[in-house]
Amino acid sequence: MSTITLLTRAGSHEVSIELNQSIVALAKKNNVVWGHACQRGVCAQCRTHVLEGAEFLNEVTPEEKLRLRKAERAEGYRLGCQTKIVSPGTVKVAHRPY
């Protein structure tokens, strides 16, 4: 079974992956606090650091290109509301708001 590990200030939460669901949607469904406000890629409260499994995620969206600096994206930062799991695998992400 493919899983995603969500790291927050409150600890580590391992949940089952659902394809084509965003990090924010998976966190909400599993009652994991993952700060967000707009869910449109504008506020960046859901800023996420991909630690493992980037190859199982969708490509960087235009919204992420507008909101995150190129250097941030190069370091593995994404927006949790825009980042979706598109293929089975093990993913590990951390909530890293500004």
From TrEMBL:
Transmembrane segments: none annotated. CDD domains: fer2 (cd00207). One of its GO terms (molecular function) is 2 iron, 2 sulfur cluster binding. It comes from the Bacteria. SUPFAM superfamilies: 2Fe-2S ferredoxin-like. Residues 2-98 form the 2Fe-2S ferredoxin-type domain. Pfam families: Fer2. InterPro entries: 2Fe-2S_ferredoxin-like_sf (IPR036010), 2Fe-2S_ferredoxin-type (IPR001041), 2Fe2S_fd_BS (IPR006058), Beta-grasp_dom_sf (IPR012675). This is Ferredoxin. The lineage of its organism: Bacteria, Bacillati, Bacillota, Bacilli, Bacillales.
